[in-house]
Amino acid sequence: MATPQSPFSFLDDLFERVAAGPQPPAWLVLEAQQRIVLFLNHVLMQEAQAMQRLMRQKGRVASVQWRAYSMSLVITPAGLFNLAQEGALPDLRLEVTETSPFALAQTALRGDKPSIRIEGDVQLAAEINWLVDHVRWDVEEDLARAIGDAPAHTVVQVAGRGAQALRQFVGTTRGAAAGAAASPQPAPVAPASNATGGFPAAPGASAASPAGSERADA
User: Is 128 exposed, middle or buried (0-12, 13-18, 19+ CB in 10 A)?
Assistant: First the structure.
């Protein structure tokens, strides 16, 4: 029996084909990296303790890599991030070992951390780990600035229900796929024939009596 595939496998295949195609121009990669830095700093500025911790690591460079994509960040004296100069040697290397983008999404939906290979400065690694564990993006507060408190609260609630439904879907799908792979399917059984060479007689009928025979009381 064929092993059941994940419902997201075709999306993984699609991503592989896109990744193998023409690479984006350097200016577009730089623009995307700058957007990521702006977002990270926006989140950090909502947590004063996080900035104070990073101030102690000013000038250090952390390199993050996933598949063929990488980005190097330098910690500024203000306790924020900036793009490191090209060719800067990283003090810390972080490599996300899970290659599937949809497996990473499932990990995030479960509230788990992705598998990461870490090399380099231990103290800097400890500070980055603290950030991952304690710093959270206050989505509702940001939305409230744009659309007001009540609509922002409603949007966050709806998004939370959607995320919960996705987590349940992922868990159910993974469980069903694992159960199907572990349970062998019984071989089909051909219907047995009766003494007359036909199909089994209906309950209460005599299989030994040929069709068209007279009843005993006739």
Answer: buried
